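INFO  loader      accepted 1 record
INFO  loader      residues=327
INFO  predictor   begin
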Amino acid sequence: MSPKLIASALVCLLLTFTLSAMAVGAVSSSGTIINVPKDYPTIQAAIDAASAGDTVLVAPGTYYESIQMKSGVTIKGSGADVTIIHGDGSWFKYPDWAYTVLGANDSTITGFTITGSIYGIICYNSSPTITNNVITCNRWHGIFNAQSSPTITNNVITGNGSRGIWSRNSSPTITNNIITGNVYSIFNYNSSPTITYNDIWGNGFNSISNYRTSPIIANNISADPLFVDPANGDYRLQTGSPSIDAGTNDAPGLPETDSDGNPRIVDGDGDGVAIVDMGAFEYPGAVPPGWSEGRKTGWNGNMPPGLDKQDKTPQGFDQGRKEGWQR
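INFO  predictor   done
INFO  writer      dumping C-alpha coordinates
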Protein backbone atom coordinates (compact mmCIF):
# COMPACT_ATOMS: atom_id res chain seq x y z
CA MET A 1 0.00 0.00 0.00
CA SER A 2 1.35 3.42 -0.94
CA PRO A 3 2.27 5.97 1.76
CA LYS A 4 -0.60 8.21 0.58
CA LEU A 5 -3.16 5.42 0.99
CA ILE A 6 -1.78 4.59 4.43
CA ALA A 7 -2.01 8.23 5.47
CA SER A 8 -5.58 8.49 4.15
CA ALA A 9 -6.58 5.37 6.03
CA LEU A 10 -5.13 6.74 9.26
CA VAL A 11 -7.02 10.01 8.80
CA CYS A 12 -10.27 8.10 8.26
CA LEU A 13 -9.66 6.01 11.36
CA LEU A 14 -8.93 9.12 13.42
CA LEU A 15 -12.04 10.86 12.10
CA THR A 16 -14.20 7.83 12.86
CA PHE A 17 -12.85 7.67 16.41
CA THR A 18 -13.42 11.38 16.92
CA LEU A 19 -17.00 11.27 15.66
CA SER A 20 -17.75 8.23 17.82
CA ALA A 21 -16.40 10.02 20.87
CA MET A 22 -18.46 13.12 20.09
CA ALA A 23 -21.58 11.00 19.96
CA VAL A 24 -21.30 10.19 23.66
CA GLY A 25 -19.48 13.23 25.00
CA ALA A 26 -16.15 14.98 25.17
CA VAL A 27 -12.95 13.01 25.58
CA SER A 28 -10.68 14.20 28.38
CA SER A 29 -7.28 13.00 29.58
CA SER A 30 -9.03 11.04 32.31
CA GLY A 31 -11.73 9.49 30.12
CA THR A 32 -14.92 10.42 28.35
CA ILE A 33 -17.42 12.91 29.77
CA ILE A 34 -20.94 11.66 29.13
CA ASN A 35 -23.62 14.30 29.57
CA VAL A 36 -27.12 13.69 30.90
CA PRO A 37 -29.58 14.38 29.37
CA LYS A 38 -27.68 15.64 26.31
CA ASP A 39 -26.06 12.32 25.39
CA TYR A 40 -28.40 9.96 27.25
CA PRO A 41 -31.84 10.73 28.70
CA THR A 42 -31.30 8.96 32.02
CA ILE A 43 -28.43 8.64 34.45
CA GLN A 44 -28.56 4.85 34.30
CA ALA A 45 -28.36 4.80 30.51
CA ALA A 46 -25.24 6.97 30.69
CA ILE A 47 -23.70 4.72 33.37
CA ASP A 48 -24.40 1.64 31.24
CA ALA A 49 -22.59 3.28 28.31
CA ALA A 50 -19.61 4.39 30.41
CA SER A 51 -16.28 2.64 30.87
CA ALA A 52 -13.77 2.80 33.71
CA GLY A 53 -12.27 6.28 33.87
CA ASP A 54 -15.34 7.99 32.41
CA THR A 55 -17.44 10.68 34.09
CA VAL A 56 -21.22 10.88 33.86
CA LEU A 57 -21.99 14.61 34.18
CA VAL A 58 -25.61 15.29 35.11
CA ALA A 59 -27.34 18.60 34.36
CA PRO A 60 -29.64 20.25 36.90
CA GLY A 61 -33.00 18.58 37.25
CA THR A 62 -34.92 15.90 39.11
CA TYR A 63 -34.31 12.38 37.84
CA TYR A 64 -36.90 9.80 38.85
CA GLU A 65 -34.88 6.60 38.75
CA SER A 66 -32.86 4.20 40.82
CA ILE A 67 -29.29 3.83 39.60
CA GLN A 68 -26.56 1.23 39.87
CA MET A 69 -23.04 2.63 39.90
CA LYS A 70 -20.29 1.04 37.79
CA SER A 71 -16.73 0.27 38.80
CA GLY A 72 -14.31 3.04 37.80
CA VAL A 73 -17.04 5.51 36.79
CA THR A 74 -17.63 8.92 38.42
CA ILE A 75 -21.22 10.17 38.58
CA LYS A 76 -21.22 13.93 39.10
CA GLY A 77 -24.23 16.18 39.61
CA SER A 78 -24.39 19.93 39.11
CA GLY A 79 -24.85 20.53 42.84
CA ALA A 80 -27.00 18.94 45.50
CA ASP A 81 -29.53 21.75 45.58
CA VAL A 82 -30.25 21.54 41.83
CA THR A 83 -29.56 17.91 40.87
CA ILE A 84 -31.86 15.38 42.53
CA ILE A 85 -32.07 11.61 42.16
CA HIS A 86 -35.50 10.60 43.39
CA GLY A 87 -35.78 6.85 43.81
CA ASP A 88 -38.42 5.22 41.62
CA GLY A 89 -39.19 2.39 44.04
CA SER A 90 -37.44 -0.33 42.03
CA TRP A 91 -36.44 -3.40 44.03
CA PHE A 92 -32.95 -4.84 43.97
CA LYS A 93 -33.41 -8.62 43.90
CA TYR A 94 -30.21 -9.54 45.76
CA PRO A 95 -30.69 -8.55 48.51
CA ASP A 96 -34.37 -7.63 48.34
CA TRP A 97 -34.28 -3.89 49.18
CA ALA A 98 -35.31 -0.74 47.42
CA TYR A 99 -32.62 1.89 46.87
CA THR A 100 -31.98 5.16 45.11
CA VAL A 101 -28.26 4.45 44.48
CA LEU A 102 -26.48 1.09 44.50
CA GLY A 103 -22.71 1.36 45.00
CA ALA A 104 -19.83 -0.22 43.08
CA ASN A 105 -16.10 -0.60 43.72
CA ASP A 106 -13.77 2.27 42.80
CA SER A 107 -16.67 4.49 41.79
CA THR A 108 -17.69 7.97 42.94
CA ILE A 109 -21.01 9.75 43.35
CA THR A 110 -20.89 13.47 44.09
CA GLY A 111 -23.06 16.58 43.90
CA PHE A 112 -26.59 15.17 44.28
CA THR A 113 -29.57 15.15 46.56
CA ILE A 114 -30.40 11.46 46.99
CA THR A 115 -33.93 10.85 48.19
CA GLY A 116 -37.25 9.12 47.83
CA SER A 117 -36.65 5.41 48.40
CA ILE A 118 -36.32 2.86 51.20
CA TYR A 119 -32.55 3.29 51.31
CA GLY A 120 -30.73 6.33 49.92
CA ILE A 121 -27.53 4.45 49.07
CA ILE A 122 -26.80 0.73 49.44
CA CYS A 123 -23.18 -0.40 49.44
CA TYR A 124 -23.24 -4.20 49.09
CA ASN A 125 -19.84 -5.85 48.60
CA SER A 126 -18.64 -2.52 47.26
CA SER A 127 -16.45 0.42 48.21
CA PRO A 128 -17.55 3.61 46.45
CA THR A 129 -16.63 7.18 47.35
CA ILE A 130 -19.67 9.21 48.43
CA THR A 131 -19.05 12.95 48.71
CA ASN A 132 -20.71 16.38 48.44
CA ASN A 133 -24.22 14.92 48.56
CA VAL A 134 -27.36 15.62 50.56
CA ILE A 135 -28.92 12.28 51.49
CA THR A 136 -32.38 12.94 52.87
CA CYS A 137 -35.99 11.80 53.25
CA ASN A 138 -35.44 8.11 52.60
CA ARG A 139 -37.88 5.83 54.39
CA TRP A 140 -35.31 3.83 56.34
CA HIS A 141 -31.60 4.57 56.11
CA GLY A 142 -29.54 7.24 54.41
CA ILE A 143 -26.64 4.86 53.70
CA PHE A 144 -26.62 1.11 54.32
CA ASN A 145 -23.30 -0.78 54.15
CA ALA A 146 -23.08 -4.57 54.01
CA GLN A 147 -19.70 -6.27 53.55
CA SER A 148 -18.41 -2.95 52.22
CA SER A 149 -15.76 -0.29 52.85
CA PRO A 150 -17.08 2.95 51.38
CA THR A 151 -15.49 6.37 51.80
CA ILE A 152 -18.18 8.77 53.04
CA THR A 153 -16.82 12.33 53.08
CA ASN A 154 -18.43 15.80 53.30
CA ASN A 155 -22.09 14.91 52.96
CA VAL A 156 -25.22 16.09 54.72
CA ILE A 157 -27.24 13.08 55.92
CA THR A 158 -30.52 14.29 57.34
CA GLY A 159 -34.20 13.53 57.76
CA ASN A 160 -34.06 9.79 57.07
CA GLY A 161 -36.65 7.53 58.70
CA SER A 162 -34.25 5.29 60.60
CA ARG A 163 -30.43 5.36 60.63
CA GLY A 164 -28.34 8.03 59.00
CA ILE A 165 -25.69 5.37 58.35
CA TRP A 166 -26.04 1.66 59.12
CA SER A 167 -23.05 -0.65 58.70
CA ARG A 168 -23.06 -4.44 58.97
CA ASN A 169 -19.88 -6.48 58.51
CA SER A 170 -18.30 -3.37 57.01
CA SER A 171 -15.40 -0.94 57.42
CA PRO A 172 -16.61 2.46 56.26
CA THR A 173 -14.55 5.63 56.62
CA ILE A 174 -16.91 8.41 57.69
CA THR A 175 -15.37 11.89 57.74
CA ASN A 176 -16.43 15.56 57.62
CA ASN A 177 -20.15 14.80 57.40
CA ILE A 178 -23.12 16.48 59.08
CA ILE A 179 -25.51 13.81 60.35
CA THR A 180 -28.65 15.35 61.83
CA GLY A 181 -32.40 14.94 62.05
CA ASN A 182 -32.48 11.18 61.52
CA VAL A 183 -34.16 8.78 63.93
CA TYR A 184 -30.76 7.22 64.72
CA SER A 185 -27.37 8.72 63.85
CA ILE A 186 -24.95 5.85 63.11
CA PHE A 187 -25.47 2.15 63.83
CA ASN A 188 -22.65 -0.39 63.51
CA TYR A 189 -22.92 -4.16 63.80
CA ASN A 190 -19.91 -6.47 63.56
CA SER A 191 -18.00 -3.70 61.79
CA SER A 192 -14.80 -1.66 61.98
CA PRO A 193 -15.80 1.88 61.08
CA THR A 194 -13.60 4.96 61.28
CA ILE A 195 -15.79 7.88 62.34
CA THR A 196 -13.93 11.18 62.67
CA TYR A 197 -14.57 14.92 62.30
CA ASN A 198 -18.35 14.71 61.88
CA ASP A 199 -21.09 16.88 63.35
CA ILE A 200 -23.61 14.41 64.81
CA TRP A 201 -26.46 16.39 66.29
CA GLY A 202 -30.22 16.44 66.70
CA ASN A 203 -30.94 12.82 65.84
CA GLY A 204 -33.65 11.01 67.81
CA PHE A 205 -30.99 8.66 69.18
CA ASN A 206 -27.87 10.75 68.76
CA SER A 207 -25.20 8.45 70.19
CA ILE A 208 -23.25 6.19 67.86
CA SER A 209 -24.45 2.60 68.43
CA ASN A 210 -21.82 -0.15 68.31
CA TYR A 211 -22.52 -3.88 68.63
CA ARG A 212 -19.74 -6.44 68.21
CA THR A 213 -17.85 -3.57 66.67
CA SER A 214 -14.31 -2.20 66.90
CA PRO A 215 -14.68 1.43 65.87
CA ILE A 216 -12.25 4.32 65.67
CA ILE A 217 -14.19 7.38 66.88
CA ALA A 218 -12.45 10.74 67.33
CA ASN A 219 -12.82 14.50 66.92
CA ASN A 220 -16.56 14.50 66.29
CA ILE A 221 -18.77 17.30 67.56
CA SER A 222 -22.44 17.51 68.49
CA ALA A 223 -23.84 20.99 67.85
CA ASP A 224 -26.52 22.62 65.73
CA PRO A 225 -24.82 23.11 62.33
CA LEU A 226 -26.89 26.26 61.71
CA PHE A 227 -28.05 25.52 58.18
CA VAL A 228 -29.29 28.54 56.24
CA ASP A 229 -32.79 27.21 55.52
CA PRO A 230 -33.13 23.45 56.01
CA ALA A 231 -36.93 23.57 55.75
CA ASN A 232 -36.50 24.61 52.13
CA GLY A 233 -33.51 22.40 51.38
CA ASP A 234 -30.70 24.93 51.84
CA TYR A 235 -28.00 23.10 53.81
CA ARG A 236 -25.31 25.74 53.45
CA LEU A 237 -23.79 27.01 56.70
CA GLN A 238 -24.67 30.27 58.40
CA THR A 239 -22.14 32.62 59.92
CA GLY A 240 -21.09 31.20 63.28
CA SER A 241 -21.82 27.57 62.43
CA PRO A 242 -19.73 25.18 64.56
CA SER A 243 -19.19 23.08 61.44
CA ILE A 244 -17.10 25.83 59.82
CA ASP A 245 -13.38 24.95 59.78
CA ALA A 246 -14.17 21.89 61.92
CA GLY A 247 -13.25 19.10 59.50
CA THR A 248 -9.91 17.63 58.54
CA ASN A 249 -7.96 18.44 55.40
CA ASP A 250 -6.65 14.87 55.44
CA ALA A 251 -10.04 13.27 54.87
CA PRO A 252 -9.92 10.45 52.32
CA GLY A 253 -11.77 11.29 49.13
CA LEU A 254 -11.79 15.02 49.97
CA PRO A 255 -12.90 16.85 46.81
CA GLU A 256 -11.24 20.04 45.62
CA THR A 257 -14.59 21.82 45.43
CA ASP A 258 -17.85 21.70 47.37
CA SER A 259 -21.29 20.77 46.06
CA ASP A 260 -21.66 24.25 44.53
CA GLY A 261 -18.35 23.89 42.68
CA ASN A 262 -16.59 26.41 44.93
CA PRO A 263 -13.15 25.98 46.52
CA ARG A 264 -13.32 23.34 49.21
CA ILE A 265 -10.71 24.45 51.76
CA VAL A 266 -11.25 28.05 52.91
CA ASP A 267 -10.46 29.96 56.08
CA GLY A 268 -14.10 30.30 57.04
CA ASP A 269 -13.64 31.50 60.62
CA GLY A 270 -10.99 34.11 59.79
CA ASP A 271 -8.26 32.77 62.07
CA GLY A 272 -5.67 32.66 59.30
CA VAL A 273 -5.75 28.86 58.91
CA ALA A 274 -7.71 27.28 56.06
CA ILE A 275 -9.50 24.14 57.26
CA VAL A 276 -12.26 22.30 55.45
CA ASP A 277 -15.81 22.57 56.76
CA MET A 278 -18.12 19.70 57.62
CA GLY A 279 -21.01 19.01 55.26
CA ALA A 280 -21.59 19.35 51.53
CA PHE A 281 -21.12 23.13 51.28
CA GLU A 282 -18.06 25.19 52.18
CA TYR A 283 -18.68 28.47 53.99
CA PRO A 284 -16.96 31.26 52.01
CA GLY A 285 -15.44 33.10 54.94
CA ALA A 286 -15.47 36.81 55.60
CA VAL A 287 -14.30 37.74 52.10
CA PRO A 288 -14.35 35.25 49.22
CA PRO A 289 -11.14 35.19 47.13
CA GLY A 290 -11.08 38.00 44.58
CA TRP A 291 -13.55 40.22 46.42
CA SER A 292 -12.80 43.34 48.39
CA GLU A 293 -14.07 43.86 51.92
CA GLY A 294 -16.97 45.95 50.63
CA ARG A 295 -18.32 43.36 48.17
CA LYS A 296 -19.26 40.25 50.08
CA THR A 297 -21.38 38.71 47.35
CA GLY A 298 -21.28 35.03 48.21
CA TRP A 299 -19.77 32.19 46.24
CA ASN A 300 -21.51 32.55 42.91
CA GLY A 301 -21.39 36.29 42.41
CA ASN A 302 -25.05 36.87 43.30
CA MET A 303 -25.70 39.82 45.54
CA PRO A 304 -27.36 39.06 48.88
CA PRO A 305 -30.57 40.96 49.60
CA GLY A 306 -29.95 44.66 50.15
CA LEU A 307 -26.54 44.85 48.47
CA ASP A 308 -25.71 46.33 45.13
CA LYS A 309 -22.34 46.75 43.48
CA GLN A 310 -21.70 49.98 45.35
CA ASP A 311 -20.99 48.32 48.73
CA LYS A 312 -24.20 49.04 50.55
CA THR A 313 -25.26 47.54 53.84
CA PRO A 314 -27.71 44.59 53.67
CA GLN A 315 -31.28 45.35 54.59
CA GLY A 316 -31.85 45.10 58.33
CA PHE A 317 -28.19 45.56 59.27
CA ASP A 318 -26.39 48.61 60.44
CA GLN A 319 -22.89 49.42 59.20
CA GLY A 320 -21.26 47.78 62.22
CA ARG A 321 -22.95 44.43 61.52
CA LYS A 322 -22.34 44.20 57.80
CA GLU A 323 -20.41 40.99 58.20
CA GLY A 324 -23.47 39.23 59.55
CA TRP A 325 -25.48 38.79 56.34
CA GLN A 326 -26.32 35.33 55.16
CA ARG A 327 -26.83 34.02 51.67
